[in-house]
């Protein structure tokens, strides 16, 4: 059986200062509870939880997925597209280096957020978005092509990150709310979900995904296709444009 682990990072007191498209007050205590429930759900699916030490000066640091792209034993450390998020990546880098990952880094003038990267097997889709620039796409391609990945750049103009628009089911079907997706035809199999909110999945195992309670019809659609769905309420983190994917980095087959 493959070893599975997930990186997570505790929300900080300054969470409510995080970057948000719509300024809605965030209940930090409630966000902490919801984060704990999220971590418990991932743990309950059999993942070892690895906590990246909290970063009190980075309000958005709970969204740990944005700090790195992991492929096989390679960890490509991101360079955040938003200036207030730069520096978050240092904690992730040190944890993954300690775990034996081969580290490379996206560097200036390139920017890249992990939320723009969707891996489906050896195909890595990377969104050219408001956060990830062309140099970021290019540096990711240069870092991971030699490791066996095919890096496919895709435009993202309607939402924050590629994974705000699309994620993938365990069988590789790409899902999303179509009005949020620039070019659904770029994906070999695309399934449109009914609701804009809560349209993301985290693959927990070959037959189970994690979704937010904010998209009940989306959950129903995914269940109707024969998948097990574990749900979590992450409403306070969604106020900061987060979704289920961005709260963890899933690791499989860790370096020995
Ligand atoms: C930001 O704007 O950077 C954060 N407030 C939200 C980041 C969410 N990350 C993600 O979806 N991968």
UniProtKB/TrEMBL annotation:
Q: Which classification does the entry list for the species?
A: Bacteria, Bacillati, Actinomycetota, Actinomycetes, Micrococcales
At the top of the EC hierarchy, this enzyme's class is hydrolase
Q: Protein name, please?
A: Dimethylargininase
Give the similarity note.
Belongs to the DDAH family.
* One Gene Ontology molecular-function label: dimethylargininase activity
Tell me which InterPro entries the record gives.
Answer: DDAH-like (IPR033199)
Q: Which Pfam families match?
A: DDAH_eukar
Q: Does the keyword GTP-binding apply?
A: no
Source domain of life is Bacteria
GO terms of biological process kind: arginine metabolic process; citrulline metabolic process; positive regulation of nitric oxide biosynthetic process
